[in-house]
Amino acid sequence: MANEEDDPVVQEIDVFLARSLLEKLYLFQYPIRPASMTYDDVTHLSAKIKPKQQKVELEMAIDTLNPNYCRSKGEQIALNVDGTCSDETSTYSSKLMDKQTFCSSQAASNVSRYAAAVYKKGELHLTPLHGILQLRPSFTYLDKADAKHREREAANEGGDSSQDEAEDDVKQITVRFSRPETEQARQRRVQSYEFLQKRQAEEHWVHLHYYGLKDSRSEHERQYLFSQGHGLAENTELIKSPSEYLMMLMPPSVEEENDKPMAPSNVLSMAQLRTLPLADQIKILMKNVKVMPFANLMSLLGSGTDPTAVLRCVQQVALLVQGNWVVKSDVLYPKDTSSPHSGVPAEVLCRGRDFVMWKFTQDRWVVRKEVAAVTKLCPEDVKDFLEHMSVARINKGWEFMLPYDEDFVKKHPDIVQRQQMLWMGIQAKLEKVYNLLKEHLTPKKQEAQSAHPLLVSGEQRVNMAKAKVKQNYGQLEKEFQKQKAEMKSNDASAKTDVPNIRIKEEPVSVEEPMDTSAHSEGLNNGLVNGLHPAQGPTEPVNGHLPGGCIDRVAQELKAFVSSTFKKQFVLTLSELKRLFNLHLASLPPGHTLFSGISDKMLQDMVLDTGCKQILVPFPPQTAASPDELKVYALWEAGDTYDQHRQVLLEIFSKNYRVRRNVIQSQLSQECGEDLNKQEVDRVLK
After folding, report:
1. What's the rounded Cα separation, in Å, for the pair 632 and 225?
2. Does residue 276 sit in the same domain as residue 200?
3. Locations of Basic and acidic residues compositional bias (predicted)?
4. Residue 362 lies in domain
């Protein structure tokens, strides 16, 4: 009451609502004017508008006679834009930058609370605004200058090059045939940014006529800012109570609140978050954090929140992985959405991300290549999945970002069991979709064991080992006595059955297995190398061939090696042995090659037939076997490509992986001739 007495009412003003310019009145906000341009007496050369977009372009004249105007700079800009020649298409016909274009943008999306007011003779007349547009300088003339510069450079380059060079410049063209567009694809295309920009560009400009401030037409239009009837009957909107009147002047912005996505990324404070229902709070938090322990979730929801209600709500939007909650895939990728990287629909993205989550339920580490091979998704999508819930480790893979939450697992076994059943159902779906192999389904060490190893003292380990030895001692003793008895019986039978067999004493070699004799039928049941012997004199005795048989074996082996390398040119030892076994299978029983060919004999014969071993520097982490790392090549085949082949083999003896252009340049340099694509392909093949 004291404040009201100190601040008395000085004057009461009648307020009127003018409707003549309703949905026609715009407020233009000009930038700070330069010294060479005054908006009071400036000349508007042209104006145009796109009504649907509420976009305006104004072209204003610049006072070139103003002392603040830099004439040399204006001439330089006009020269860069239009060049030396002037025609109707020139931007600046006066060879001087004498005008400036302004382009508008919307200053506010909701202007229902703004109005233009005119005060006259103790009356305040309000006209609601239909739009507020901010005018900014447009620099499209700079783009035109750049285009002119590029055209001049292209013309200069085109003049230096000959017509023959232009004809030789052949470019590969990829031809694609478009498939019929589905309804879902059409909706995505209509909602795309590119389509909206195209629609906006298609709207035609409506050219306007500008009237100055003191023009008679402006004076006439300015009268529409006043209310046409002052009677209260015509202004029934203002016959309201004070609270209703304020509500009309400042209505609640419902549209703006609905337009804001309910997410912390839209500057949603924790105070605003806690005003939402509990289920919405949990969904928003999980959608933005993606992986969270239950304890952290409870701390974010505030004190007094019921943990049971939180558990009930979090299971609707998240899944349990290693004791932590990970947001569900369908929450991140709603229906009818697609990947920003590849355009893959949300259903495929959800399956791929579910596979990554399921892999983390099996192991703490996941390999990115394995995920990409199974899901067949692009690397960017796979990387997004992994970044949601894991951290990359060099030379190891992707590790789950949070430690195993053992406390939650112990406190809530019923929740854990229910989540395990859900994962079993997800696994069954993934098996059908991706045709998962056993190596994908076999679970590795459980996270609880890897994250929290059991600590055992040294004394306990010794006692455990002693107990294990005592337990297995009896069984080991029986097996030893049995083997000892078998060895004695074998020695006795060998002395009585084959007294004249000479044992070849030499170091045991993997490459030269000992061949059994045809005379020791009691030991091998009449089999030599798994085949029935033919005539006795042609078979080896203790690995030694009879006199004339050695030459025949060498000839047969040499013929096989020569014919094989003339067909293949380059072979690994593993592949050569496979081909030799196939050759043996095609031979009749009793053939000389059945006498037993060791790896060393085969390799020596390869070198004797004019082949060379190529020491290819394979990477140390390769999974190939030793036989696959031994590479042999025919050095001279007697054809026209011997020299090219030798150069190519020298290249691969320095690096196991070489680019095609390097090979072609090296062949041309070493051989002194340019090879075309077909010749290079023939040498490589």
Report:
1. 97
2. no
3. 146-155
4. 270-434
